[in-house]
Each structure stands twice: as C-alpha cells, then as structure tokens.
Amino acid sequence: MSDLSLPFDTRYLPVKKFHHEYRRSIEQPEEFWAEQARQLDWFRPWDKVLEWDPPFAHWFAGGLLNASHICVDRHIKHWRRSKVAIYWEGEPGDTKVLSYSTLYNEVNRFAAMLRNRGIGKGDRVALYLPMLPELPIIMLACARIGAPHTVIFSGFSAQALADRVNDVGAKLLVTADGGYRRGKTIPLKTVVDEALTMCPTVESTIVVRRANIPVSMKPSRDFWLDDLLEQEAPYIAPEPVESNHPLYILYTSGTTGKPKGIVHSTGGYMVHNYCTYKWAFDIREESVYWCSADVGWVTGHSSIVYAPLAHGAAIVLYEGAPDYPNVDRWWHIIDKYGVTIFYTSPTAIRMFMGYGEKWLAKHDLSSLELLGSVGEPINPEAWVWFYRHVGGERCPIVDTWWQTETGGIMISPAPGIECVPLKPGSATLPLPGVDADVVDESGNPVPPETRGLLVIKKPWPGMLLGIHGNPERYQQAYWSRFPGIYYTGDYAVKDRDGYFWMLGRADEVLKIAGHRIGTAELEDAAISHAEVAEAAVVGKSDPVKGESIVIFVRIKEGSSPTQDLKQAIIKHMRQVVGPIATPDAVYFVTRLPKTRSGKIVRRVLKAVAENTPIGDVSTLEDEAVVEEIIKIYQELKQVQEVK
Ligand code: WT7
Fold it and tell me: What is the CATH number of domain 100-239?
C-alpha cells in the first residue's frame, strides 16, 4: 500500500514464533491468558479466567491483587530498589530522579495522606495536575488503597473539569497552584476554584506547590500537600482488591455531548498491559522508556505509569511543551537520559519533520532501540522520517493501534515476541489474544483491500468494565451494532498479507493532534454562546494535526455575522471545553444540510470543508441547502480564515 521502500527487504524475515503464539492465543484464549497472568503477583489466585456475560467481561474473577504492589513493592524486594524509576524534567529545566525505593516511600506517604483525608476503598479521587512526579505517585497511592482515580487533562476548562468530577462523584480533588507551559504559568488552582462552585461531592482539595503563584485557599476545604505529608514514610499495606475492582475511570469523547467515563479493571488491565508492553516494546527493567503523551490520556495511564513501572523500567516524565525553549528539546531529553524506547504521536513527528533534521543532528540519539507511534494513523512519509532521522535506521517502529476503551495495545508489531516485517503506515497484525477483523455494515468480513469497520470479536483482558453509571450506553455504543462483537468506531482495511491499515474514525468523533473530541461536545459548546442558534462541526484534514475543527454556525436573528463574533465564538468554545476545542475555521450559514429526521448530514459539510465532491445527496430533505452551503463556502474561501 505504500511505495516508500525500506532499506531492508522485509519479506524473508522468519515470523514462525509470532504466528505460533497468535494461533495458540486464539485457539485456547483462557489457557493463554492464565499463563500470562501468572507472571504478575496475586495475593489470591483467580477462580475463573473469564466470566463472559456479553457485553460484560470479568477477567480473573475472584483473584486478589493490587496495582501499586505490582508497580512498586515488587521491585523493593529486588535489586531494582536502587535503580531509577522516574527521571522527571520540568519545563524550566529543573529535574528530579526517583529510585524505586524513593517511589515506594512516596507512594506510601501519599497513601497515608489520602487515608487521613478520609479516602477509602471505592471512593473516587479526581486529579487535575501538570506532568509532575506527584501525578504517578498519587495514581499509585490511590491504587494502593483501592480508590479509583480519575485523571482530568489539565488543559480542560473549569466547566469540562466540573462535568467530569460530578459524573464520577469525586470526594477529593488533587491539583497544583499552577504549571508551566511555554515559559508561562497556567493558573490551575484558579480553574479548580471556578469548577468547584459546581461540584457538590468534593469535600477537600489538595494543592501541590509547583509554580509558586498566589492562589486562594478556602479554609477547611483546601490544603497544601506539604502540610499533609508526614515526614517519615509510614507503611500502608496495599489493599488486596478483587480483579474487577475499578482501578480508574477515564473520560473520553463519544458521539453525544456527554463524555463517557471509561471504567478499567485492576487484574485484566494489568495483565493486558504487562504483556503487551513486553510484546510491542520489548520493555525490560534496563529500559529507559519515554512516552511523550500527557498522563491525562489513556496513553499516559498505561504507557507512562502502569505498564513500564510494572516492568521495573525507568520512565521519563517531561512537564512542558515539546519545542520549548528550542525545537530540539525532545532530542536533548533523549540524549540526556539515554532513552532506549521512545513512544510518540504522528502529529508530533510531522511537527518535527517541519522543523528539519538539523535539530536532531546536534544530539546523540544512539541510545534508542525502538520507536513507537500512537493516537492516529501515521502517514508513510512521517513513518519513514521517524525511522531514518530519529531511529537512525536501526530501530523498529511499532505503530500501536488501541483506544481508551481497550485499555492496552491491540494491533501492533510485536518485536518482543518476533518482529513481523514492517510496512510504513500499517499497524501490522493483531497482538496475541486479540481477535480483530474488518467487516461491512452487516457484520460480514470484507475481502482484502476493501474498506470496512474495525471490530474485535472476542473479549480481551484490558477491555473496559463499562461506562461509569451508564450500562445502557456501554451496550449501545459498543455492542449494539454487531451483537456480541465490539465495535471500535474506526475504519480499516486489511491488505493481502492480513496487515491492518487504519483509516480514521467512522463515527462523529474527531482526532485533533491525536486527541479525541466529539463533534457533539463542540457543537454544544458553540450553541451555549448567546448569539449562536445552531452549529455543526466537521473535521478537515490537516497536514500536521491530522484533523482540524471546522464549524458551521447559524446565528440568532438580530445578530450580525462579523469577524468579531467569529472570534468571540472561538474564545467561548475554548472557555467551555479548553484549548483543544479551538476551531481553525468558522463559517456563518443560514441553513444546515439535514436529513428528513433532522440529523445534520456531516458528509456534506465535510465535503464543503475539504472542497471535494459531495456524492449522493438523495437522502437530503432539500438539495437546495447543499447548493446554498457550497455557495456560501465559495464566498467564504475568498475571505481570510479566522484563526
Ligand atoms: C482512537 C482512540 C490509545 C491511545 C491514544 C488514543 C485512533 C489510536 C492509532 C493508530 C491509527 C489510531 C483510532 C482510535 N488511533 N491509535 N496506531 N493508528 N489510529 O486513544 O483517545 O481513545 O482514541 O485513536 O481512531 O479509535 P483514544
């Protein structure tokens, strides 16, 4: 599918071992996964590998374990106690290095502090923090006492934060005074103060001192972390939780305006991540592993915290912007810490491609052994650039396909077992235990080279337990389209070698710089502006970000379609959702294309935004609307787009 050739011929690499493992995993999944699960520490073995009551799966039912015990305590009884767990670097250049024994003490101190604040098993703790060492420490401390955490990306607005905190019913919120971004301080506590006026369940907040900016502290609600932590690290025994006790709840966007609280288990999640990081990344205790994502997304949960720490690897945690103060900041970090495995997004790769290779040439990247890509389809050009210029033509690239819901990697090369021949732009084959396929609208497998919908036909250990507080939505969103089969929401194609090529979302979810955001959430944000009557959002392809936001707005009678109003709508959307919701273009329209039932026909708007043919419009109520929109668009094209 790609005419970009690799400097080696991949056709003759032996892949017997991988195919053998894969076949075994599909033919005898329970034996296969039980064998994998035995590699982790359990306080009590499971009674049943899988209880499958579609669409609800309980893996390793009856087994008792604790994720913080697996990520920290295990290493303390081993020589790894004195090796590095976390290399942290702040944006201003300050650093901290934590050994596993320091991490262990910190996790215990934080767990004691949470208990002292009245947090117990099952209570939810919300985290709204920059990329500080405290973030993984608090996650592990929550896991230690069986309190599910909800990490909310620190780029979200007060409203978005409040919506998530309320949906999860958090009792405690942990934040910081502020964080650094491009040399500026971001006033996180101020955002929290605004959010908390809307959050009745939060009894107290804990504030990490980071930016040393003035904040207001509400007596008997807000506490400085330093004042609560005891000097001596007490020992807090890890709470043995049943395998299906929720480890965390993480919000992600779906096709309605309300984000979904994806609930992950402890046992299945840990087993899935432990194995797949060994298979996909060949991660080992001597690895220096850097995943450049924010902990606020699932990538950060699995790839920064739970998987690499379970393996006793050293992780790199970097607080700030990728190209600050210079565009070689990342290459500097790889050189400085001797990163061996580097995992990032296609958007970042394309951004650095734009800056040119000269920035890489200044640094020694020879420590790198393996590269990974995630979050959106990687175009072959970016793949080859990453391979040549970052990996020095030595490092395999693992293009890993997965989702917040899958908990861990599903489709990816597996050099930790045996590397299949790579093809730039393909995530290659499903990992062992993952029964993936591409089907048509009726659920029948499509022939090779034909686009279809990506589905997973069997439960897998990392899969979500459900959607917090909403079992119907869980059933409806993932299991109703093809009964008994998980619907991913992605388009894909399989080539003649059975390789998967991901083709983006098939539903109303956008991927902006790899971040997932629903069109409905963006439309709701726009409509909450006083002068907006109706709004429709589509994604437009973007050479760097993958997709960008284009919004069509019908304003209320009496309002004027001015440039100022466009700016005001953009500002408003950023305020309601966060900077991630910034449209690249706002178009004023007088009508939107709709079906007879009133559903917006996004396909038409997308064609307008992309300037491509519209295709069959016979389902539309009124074809004139389409023509009108095209007319308006053509006029608008002359006008400078508002950024
Ligand atoms: C969606 C899930 C899981 C990590 C971060 C994203 C897209 C993810 C790939 C890839 C092509 C990819 C899909 C998927 N996606 N990885 N390697 N190639 N597309 O998690 O925010 O839940 O988004 O990201 O569209 O459905 P997420």
Answer: 3.40.50.980
Q: Where are the domains of the chain?
A: 100-239, 512-642
Decide if pLDDT at 250 tops 90. Answer: yes
CB 300 near ligand 1, within 6 Å: no
Which class for 99: exposed (0-12), middle (13-18), buried (19 or more C-beta within 10 A)?
Answer: middle
B/e letters for 502-521, b = 16+ CB within 10 Å, e = fewer, are: bebbbbbbbbbbbbbbbbbb
Superfamily of the domain at 512-642: ANL, C-terminal domain (3.30.300.30)
- DSSP SS3 for 231: coil
377 within ligand 1 shell (Cβ under 6 A): yes
Q: What is the pLDDT of residues 101-154, one digit of tens each?
A: 999 999 999 999 999 999 999 999 999 999 999 999 999 999 999 999 999 999
Round the average pLDDT of the chain to a whole number and report it. 93
**Ligand 1 atom with the shortest distance to the CA of 516:** 21
Question: Which DSSP category does 306 fall into?
Answer: I
Of ligand 1's atoms, which has the minimum distance to the CA of residue 427?
Answer: 17
Q: Does the beta carbon of 73 lie inside 6 Å of ligand 1?
A: no
Are 100-239 and 512-642 equal in CATH topology? no
- Summarised one tens digit per residue, pLDDT across range 353-387 is 999 999 999 999 999 999 999 999 999 999 999 99
pTM, full prediction: 0.94
